[in-house]
Design a protein that fits this description.
The chain is mostly beta strands and 388 residues long. It has helices at 3-8, 67-76, 235-242, and strands at residues 33-36, 53-54, 85-91, 97-101, 106-111, 116-121, 126-131, 143-149, 152-157, 160-165, 172-178, 181-188, 193-199, 212-216, 222-226, 246-250, 255-259, 265-269, 275-280, 289-292, 297-300, 305-314, 318-329, 334-345, 350-356, 360-361, 366-371, 374-379, 382-387. A hairpin with a 2-residue loop joins strand 8 (143-149) and strand 9.
Length: 388
């Protein structure tokens, strides 16, 4: 199927960017139902968001921008007539995929639905499975997040962290940490790991703990915990609101960025665990998780909503924000998806819109991954590479 078909797909409609007040319209009802999140239980609900300036991308000095961000801007804003894409000889299970680069020729691709870690050679278009689903050393189970740092792959799984050494290929399992909490994302600093995790009912000592950031040493031991989570004792609600959340670390600014996919804020801490500030995401349309205490059952409501699907530190200064907008069509019972991309300068606290991608049906949605040497477009499992 031609890649150009997906570039030229018409924009079906623009999702509304009107901001909805982040609060539940009602408290627990007679039958035990309630909507979440509620303002009072959000992390640092007593802190006002830091005011950030909204700037134009065109006003950025081009010499201060990494080439891959310029490439993303050109693609999203119609300057792609000279861009050449290559369809990869690999299909993944869908859009729940993380991608990073081992070097200029080798991509690391994590298919989270399949618990499959793949190395793809862009020169000969051959690929190798480095890890697959299982419970043995080097296997993956319930994969949540992947990052590559200094030719090492760090994969967060539900029960901990798996490290793969890729200095010499093929990669090999190096270390596995197991945690007492469900783990969703991990960030690496100079000497420690920081994990976003939430204690569960099986650990009685921490049963009422909300999700937190945990500082872990090189041997996998928790040194300290910080950052309040969603302050509600119900573990099911906390897990639902923490799923798909992410943390990233900027060494240039010595800041840990925390993005909850279900909350309209970005939170920032230093590695000592000190809260620095939070920012409010513009144009955020809140979705709500409806939970019934009596039935012990919950679900996200089907409605137009926004989720912050990804954050990535680019070239130390820039934080790339990938925002997913969902629009429901009640006439056809269809869902339409659009991704917006923006960058935050972490030193100047200035936010720049990079561009909006096209709107597509949910079974055709596409996600763009920015990598040091180019960008990878995932069109619902079909992959296209555009080299810098």
């Amino acid at each position: 199927m031609s890649f150009l078909r997906f570039i030229i797909v018409p924009l079906l409609f623009i999702v509304s960017c009107s901001h909805q007040k982040n609060e539940s319209p009602f408290k627990p009802s007679v039958d035990g139902s309630s909507l979440h999140p509620e303002d009072a239980w959000l992390p640092h609900s007593d802190k006002k968001p830091l005011e950030i300036s909204h700037e134009r991308f065109a006003d950025i000095n081009a010499t201060s921008l990494p080439d891959n961000l310029i490439l993303l801007y050109r693609f999203l804003n119609g300057y792609h007539s000279q861009l050449r894409s290559v369809e990869l000889d690999l299909f993944v299970s869908g859009n729940d995929v993380d991608v990073s680069a081992i070097n200029e020729d080798i991509l690391a691709i994590l298919d989270k639905n399949e618990d499959r870690l793949i190395l793809y050679n862009l020169q000969n278009h051959r690929y190798t499975d480095i890890a697959t689903r299982g419970t043995e050393n080097g296997d993956l189970l319930f994969s949540k997040d992947m990052q590559t740092v200094d030719q090492n792959i760090f994969i967060t799984t539900r029960d901990g962290l798996s490290l793969f050494d890729c200095e010499t290929l093929p990669c090999r399992p190096e270390k596995i940490f197991h945690t007492d909490f469900y783990t969703y994302s991990t960030a690496l600093t100079d000497s420690n790991y920081y994990a976003l995790g939430i204690y569960t009912a099986r650990n009685e000592a921490h049963h009422k703990e909300s999700s937190k950031l945990h500082k872990i040493d090189v041997n996998g031991r928790v040194q300290s915990s910080f950052s309040p989570g969603y302050e509600i004792p119900n573990i099911n609600v906390r897990q639902a609101l923490t799923e798909n959340s992410l943390i990233r670390y900027s060494p240039q600014h010595n800041l840990i960025a925390l993005a909850y996919s279900s909350f309209p804020y970005l939170y920032f801490y230093n590695p000592k665990g000190e809260y620095k500030y939070k920012i409010e995401l513009p144009g955020y349309q809140q979705r709500f998780y409806e939970y019934n205490e009596k039935m012990n059952f919950g679900r996200f409501q089907e409605s137009d909503h926004t989720t912050l699907s990804k954050i990535e530190v680019i070239n130390s200064h820039w934080l790339l924000l990938k925002t997913r907008h969902s629009k429901q069509d009640p006439n056809t019972n269809s869902e339409y998806i659009r991704y917006d991309y923006s960058i935050l300068h972490m030193g100047e606290n200035k936010l720049y819109p990079v561009g909006e991608d096209i709107t597509l049906l949910s079974d055709e949605e596409r996600v763009i991954h920015i990598i040091e040497f180019g960008m990878l477009i995932n069109q619902n499992g079909t992959l296209y590479w555009i080299k810098l």
